[in-house]
Write a structure and sequence with these properties.
Elements lengths: L1 H46 L12 H13 L1 H7 L2 H4 L3 H22 L3 H22 L4
Helix pairs in contact: 1-2, 1-6, 2-5, 3-5, 5-6
Bound molecules: heme C.
Length: about 140
Amino acid sequence: MRGASLALVLTLSLAGVALAAGADLKTEMKTVVDAATTTIFAVGGDVDPANGPDAAKVPASRWAEAVAAAQKLKGPAANLNSAENKAKGPVWAASAADFARLAGDAEKAAMKKDGAAFSKAANDLGDTCTACHAKFKAQS
Ligand code: HEC
């Protein structure tokens, strides 16, 4: 009797945790990832050597914004790479690992003001959104 009600309580609280985690991810994507990557993609375009020789001459303040934006991705990266989320399968695990690695690459490149490395990290980071969303996000 006691065992049965304990099991029920555990089941209910686990369901609550799963729901909260799902809602958190969506909020985090909308409030943190979207804003940070807007900066990263914009700076990535500005400093891409393919966009001309002056592209690397963005002001130091803009590079500082890029560093800060890349650092803001650390929380979401940890969330995407939690054991619970990685259990969603190989596509999730691979794109989540790429997301974390490329956010780190972007941070390091921005600290060095390395336009080529930063624009590559930004482009590849953008590919991780598509890879994961194609399978795991409802398409609108
Ligand atoms: C490993 C998986 C994964 C990666 C990588 C990922 N996302 Fe997401 N993202 C999701 C999931 C899952 C949702 C939907 C969450 C929900 O609806 O509960 C989502 C939702 C979003 C939303 C909210 C969209 C809406 O419907 O309101 C935005 C914005 C977003 N992601 C941006 C990004 C950007 C930008 C990147 C890449 C820099 C990225 N995401 C990378 C899994 C991922």
